[in-house]
Each structure stands twice: as structure tokens, then as C-alpha cells.
Write a structure and sequence with these properties.
This protein is α/β, with parallel strands linked by helices. The chain has a single domain, classed as Rossmann fold. Helix content is 20%, strand content 29%. The chain has three helices and seven strands; from the N terminus they run E-H-E-H-E-E-H-E-E-E. A seven-stranded mixed beta sheet has the order 1-7-6-2-5-4-3. Strand 3 and strand 4 form a beta hairpin. The longest helix is centred in the N-terminal third of the chain and has 12 residues.
Length: 148
């Protein structure tokens, strides 16, 4: 598999384990410098997907949402995996001093950003956009896109 197997496709998952498995499979094809932006309402599966993605990258640590600390990092050989959750951010001023620009500009990193729409002017041009939505019967629709 490679990124082309995901981009511009829509997947339906019917359980949290299936959402994690999709994240895992996607994580296995990511490369240094990739920035993944997640969009979706509360409960749409963003953190669950990220847990699988991190597992696919080979991260053994438990992945929990950094809602209150905003950024968590995990070592990946040379670079790091950054999990950023912007749920509590109200405006761009709240982003100052967090070092997000430096994290994004380091091409050794792989980054996942939940609530990426809150980045506005900081949002990188080259990124992978993933839109998650809660469907009926506990299923999730997960749509992959690529922005360059």
C-alpha cells in the first residue's frame, strides 16, 4: 500500500477497532515531513484514528488526546511524531508561543493535527486532509484528500 491507495477515497468503518485499523494502515505509508489534518465533530473518531496511525508508525506508547496540553510528541528515530489537538484553541493568538511553526517546518517530523481548521494562517499548504463524520449505527465516514 501507499498514500495513493487512500487519497481521494472514502472509507466507512463500523467500529472503533476498524477506525484504528484504517489509521494503522495509513500510518504505515506515511513519511517524514507528512502533515495530516483531521476535521470532524466531537465523537467523529479523530483520536481513535490517530491511535491507530501512531501504532502503524511503530509507536508503542499509549496515545491519548492532548486536549489540555495541546501538543504531545513521541520519538520516531531521527524525528518525532507530533499529535496536536486544537479543540481548546479559540483564536490564532492562542497559538503563539506553542512552537507549532517550528514543528511543522521540521521535515523530520510526522504530524497529526486534530481540529486543524483552527490553524487558519498557520495551516501548511502541503498536507493530507482527512474528514471524519459520525454516521448511523456507530459507523464513521472517513474521507481522505491531498492538498499541495
Amino acid at each position: 500500500m501507499n498514500k495513493k491507495d487512500f487519497v481521494n477515497k472514502v472509507f466507512i468503518t463500523n467500529s472503533s477497532r476498524a477506525t484504528q485499523k484504517l489509521g494503522h494502515d495509513f500510518g504505515r505509508v506515511l513519511e517524514k515531513g507528512d502533515i495530516v489534518c483531521l476535521y470532524g465533530n466531537l465523537g467523529s473518531g479523530k483520536t481513535t484514528f490517530t491511535q491507530g496511525l501512531a501504532e502503524g508508525l511503530g509507536i508503542k506508547e499509549k496515545i491519548i488526546s492532548p486536549t489540555f496540553i495541546i501538543i504531545r510528541s513521541h520519538k520516531l528515530g531521527v524525528g518525532s511524531f507530533y499529535h496536536i489537538d486544537l479543540y481548546r484553541i479559540e483564536n490564532e493568538k492562542d497559538l503563539e508561543g506553542l512552537g507549532i511553526e517550528e514543528i511543522i517546518n521540521n521535515k523530520d517530523n510526522i504530524i497529526v493535527i486534530e481540529w486543524a481548521e483552527k490553524l487558519k494562517n498557520y495551516l501548511p499548504q502541503k498536507r493530507i486532509d482527512i474528514k471524519l463524520s459520525y454516521e448511523k449505527n456507530n459507523s464513521r465516514k472517513i474521507k481522505f484528500g491531498l492538498t499541495t
